[in-house]
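Worked example 4.2. Below are the chains of a multi-component assembly; read each line carefully before continuing.
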Amino acid sequence: MIRIVRSTIIDAPTDRVWALLRDFNGHDRWHPAVAKSEIERGQSSDKLGCVRHFYLRDGSELRERLLTLSDLEQSFSYCLLDTPVPLFNYVAHVRLAPVTDGNRTFWEWRCSFATRAGAEAEMTRMVGEDIYDAGFAAIRSRLTASSPTEGRA
Amino acid sequence: MARVYVSSVINGRSDRVWARVRDFNGLPTWHPGIAESRIESGEPSDKIGCVRDFRLRNGDRIREKLLGLSDFELFCTYSILESPMGVENYVATLRLTPITDGERTFAEWTAEFDCPPEREAELVSSIGGGVFQGGFDALKRQFGG
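Applying the procedure described above to all two chains together yields the following structure tokens:
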């Protein structure tokens, strides 16, 4: 079992970060790797158990199920159902916490998964850098840019 | 039940910050509000259930019991046994989490307690703004920002 933990500080209030991350179907509007996403069966993206069906910019097709969503703890977790890469039993957890002495946000993104022998290094790099680090960078540039607008709703 | 939550970013690796705050008898070495401390009955300060008897710089004396300590999850949980503060069922946790994109630490200090309603705002302010934030400010100075 491989575990990855990535965390960072975003110079924006937690509510603003959560407003972007909370939408389980919203990653195609902020994550640079995600081209388009939709929730299956027309369900609401904050209905527990809903499945997001999405495509990466490289054409990969994935499905993930929402396992936890908490507006109180500002956290969510999800698992992969289908993916073309060797990620097995992939479960991820995202949580935010306010930095109260600076009105900033602590953001942690962690997961565990298995993969096939020989793919450990590549899967670890892909998840940690292409997904988590790239996601941190995208939210950071979006929320700490000079423009105060939140972008598309 | 009143609740206090204070958090901060310390400019040092979490193992180094943990080494500073882990000692349940070590408050006087890093917290500016604490004058002296001892562990009762000669027990080691990382024995779960041990009691620290300490004195603030203003002279107040407090006894607290260690309820939980984790070198894996980097947290320390304790309760107040005796204090002049007028709180009941007081349980607090100091927790550190690594910030992986730099050698920094996310520090959280929470407390829950019961008190008369008219005293809640004052107690939340003195515990959160005074004791907890005062401790974080000292750690930030000690770790350079």
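Take a moment to check your reading of the output against the notes. The longest strand of chain A covers residues 88-99. The helical segments of chain A are 14-21, 120-143.
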